[in-house]
Structure formats: structure tokens, C-alpha cells
Amino acid sequence: MLRPLSGFLFTSVAALAATVSPTFDESVKPLLTGTCVACHNDKNSSGGLSVSGFLTPGSIASKRDGWELIVRKVRAGEMPPKGMTAPPAQVEAMLKHLDGEFARIDRNTKPDPGRLTAHRLNRTEYSNTVRDLLGVSFQADEEFPADDSAYGFDNVGDVLTVSPTLMQKYLSAAEQIASRAVGADPLPKPGVVVKKDRLRRLEATTVQMKDRIEYDADYIIRVNLVGHRGAKDKPVNLQISVDGKPIKTVEVPVQISAVNQQGGATQRSSWEQKVFLPAGDHVFRSEFLNDEEGKALPREARLNTNRNIYPDAIEIAGPFPSAEQHPSQKKVLICDPAVGVTCVNRILSSLTRKAYRRPVTAADVSPLLGIFNKAKTSGYNPAQSLQFSIAAMLVSPNFLFRIEKDPKPGTVAQVSDLELASRLSYFLWSSMPDDELLRLAEQNR
Fold it and tell me: Best label site of 43, 75, 209, 340, fewest CB within 10 Å?
């Protein structure tokens, strides 16, 4: 009666044993101690590797990098080296055991996304953010030191440091940008600039000049024409443009006046247009449109004042105070700061929300209001006082850095919608989130 039961027990134990995975000592250690130890020991650690630290099961987790290197070498056929052999069954058993242990360890290990370094805005991101925030065109690539780069990219947070020189540049730029955004500082006395040495004649009737404007203000662009054509020639269409955008197109007669004809003087005329220009480099151009008669003249006659009319100079007069708010002021001054602190608080709350790329609290705005009040007490007018507050905002770490808060120790948390919005906007257009993206992020959508 016992013999059938004993047979059943024997069969069950054998089947159970077949399902139990071989141990480390059975699958891995034989190859290490029988083959690898000859070259990789404490006295002769070939390749800088000794297997003495890999002889326990716990080493698979504690020396994971080393084990992954061993597996790669064995699978690639680099180990054992030529001239040495290892039983194929031992090699297969070791690889199978290690693959299983790697998978088991990975399943039981809590994910660690690591920490994200506070990401300083690089020069491109800084310029774009200032433009979108305040409507001010600022060329950070000309004003700031070159950004550090890694792997060919200049937007890697780990290497974007802040040197003392850069910090000084930030302070200077913040004052300049705030002044341009609000426009409360008095302009210098207007003058006239004539730089014939910078004038390039592209054609007989087309000239172009590049110049730098120092102040956001109105300027008069004046084109001086010289010469004349025949009494029966048709008028020409003069176009004056700035940065490729026409600011004035006018029909100009080409005949000489009776006074100049009688006195033998050269025919001269001037045409001008007042236009708002932001500080920075600009291209000024004057040309005759569809001037077929001018093109038909012989080459030697095209700059002859008795046979042709053509632009001789471009003058720039200014700066003059703008009659209307310029684009930056319209973007920043959503109300008049002279009305009182309620308006100033509204302006600063709106700007800091966009500049810091998140909802702001009284704790964020209160220091900036304090700066405004201190400047006003010192004798500055409300608009000038506001400039000090905006300058302080532009040197705040909340503006200069994209900072993502770490989760509580030992926990893993999702990137917040606001943090994701900044990641997305700076990845796609290298600037702050636009109004719609920021609004959606605040709604956790």
C-alpha cells in the first residue's frame, strides 16, 4: 500500500525541483572560479577586474555596473579571451541566471528619476523671454558672455553656470530693459545724424544705410535727392523703408525748378517721415520703384545730376518723445502707475506671473512693491519707480532660472503641469509659455 504513495511523492518532489531556478553557486560561481579567476584575481587583475568581489549573490545588485560589463564582454565573445575555453553550458547558465536576476531586481526597485538642476536661461532663451514678456528687443548674444555647452548644445542645465561677470551683466541689462519697457527716463536733446561713410549705393537710385539707434523714441528719417531729368520725363515713386518695411511712398517730380535752371544750381529736394524706432541696429533704405526710365539711362549718365535724379544721403533726426505709447509701454502699462499703488500692484502681479511662469502670491509681489515705494520716496516719479521694480524682477532667480521642486525624500512625483508647460515652451520656441499655455497649466489641463 505504501509503494504507490512513495512513488507519487518521489514524482512530485522531482517536478518541484525542476521548477526551482538554479542558485548563484550553481549557475554563476563555477564559471568564475573555474575559468575567469585565472586572469581576474587580486594579484593579476587583468583589465582592472578581479572576480573576488563578484562571488556572492548580493554582488549582482551592489556591483550591477560591473556585472553588466561582464555580460556584455561574454556575449560579444571577448571573454574568455582567445586561447582559453569555457564550457558552453556554464556560459549559458551564467547568462540566463544573470538576466533573470537583473529583471527581478529591476521589478523590485523603485524608480528614481533623479534631480533636475536649476536651469539657467541661456542667451537665446533670455532674449526671447524678454521680448515676449516686455516687448523689448534685447540682443543677449551681444551683451552676455558665451554660454557653456555640452554635447554640442548650449541649453544643458548642468553646465549653465553663473559667473560674477554674467551676474554683473544681468544687473546692467535689467536696468536697461526696464527703462526701455516703461520709457520713463528723459531723452537727450535731439540731433541730426548724417553718415555718408555708411551709405551703400546698391544701384544708381537705391541707397541703404545701417545704423544703431540708442533710444526707444520717434525719429525723422530724411532722404535727400539731387539732380533732375528732362522736362517731359515722368515723376518717380520714392519709397523709404526701415528694416524692410516701407514707411513712406511718395511721387516725386524729376524736372528742375525755374530758379535752379536760371541760376545754374543743382536741383535738390528732401522727403521725410517720422517713425517710432526701438533701440538697436536698423537698416534704412531709399529707392525708386519701377523706375524703367532711370534704368534705361547709360551707365555714365546715372550719377550725372544734369541727366538723372537719385538719392544722395539719408539723415536720421531725433530722438523725440513719442506722441503715443510705444509697443513695450502698451504691453507693460496696463494702467497708469500714477493712479496709485493698486495699479502698480496690478502691473507687477501680471508681469511676475508671466516672468516666473507660475501663479504668484503676495509674497512674490510684496518685495517689488517695497522697491517701488522706496524709489518713490527717494524722489522718482511713479513710472521711474516702476522701472526699479521691473529691474529687480529681471534679476530674480525665479526669472533667470527654470526651477522644478524636488518631491519629498523617498517619494516619486509627476512633473507638475506648470513645470511641464515651461519644459514644453522652452523646447518648442525657446521662450516662456504663452498666455494660453500658462492658463491651461494653471487649470491643470
Answer: 43
Q: Are 371 and 333 in contact (CB under 8 A)?
A: no
pLDDT value at residue 190: 94
Say which residues have a Cβ less than 8 Å from residue 307's Cβ, sequence separation at least 6: 227, 229, 297, 301
CA distances from 90 to 1, 22, 85, 324, 387 (A): 43, 12, 11, 86, 76
Please measure the distance between the N-terminal and C-terminal CA atoms of the chain and give it in whole angstroms. Answer: 73
Nearest to 252 by CA among 237, 266, 233: 237
For the chain, state the CA radius of gyration: 38
Distance CA 121, CA 160 (A): 8
List Cα–Cα distances, 408 to 185, 274, 419, in angstroms. 47, 59, 17
pTM equals 0.72
Residue 410 C-alpha cell reads as 523617498
CA distance 406 to 114: 9
Give per-residue pLDDT as tens, 135-179: 999 999 999 999 998 988 888 888 999 999 999 999 999 999 999
Gap between the Cα atoms of 218 and 242, Å rounded: 13
Beta-bridge partner residues of 210:
283
Return the amino acid letter for 177: I
Strand 236-242 with 280-289, pairing: antiparallel
**Do residues 209 and 199 touch, judged by C-beta distance below 8 A?**
yes
311/375 Cα distance (integer angstroms):
49
For residue 411, the tally of other CB atoms under 10 A from its CB is 8
Per-residue pLDDT band at 21 (split at 50, 70, 90)? low
Place of cell 527717494: 378
- Res 225 pLDDT > 70: yes
- ∠ Cα 402 420 116 (to 5°): 50
Long-range contacts, stretch 27-31, CB < 8 angstroms, 24+ apart:
27/93, 27/94, 27/96, 27/97, 28/93, 28/94, 28/97, 28/98, 29/55, 30/90, 31/86, 31/87, 31/90, 31/91, 31/93, 31/94
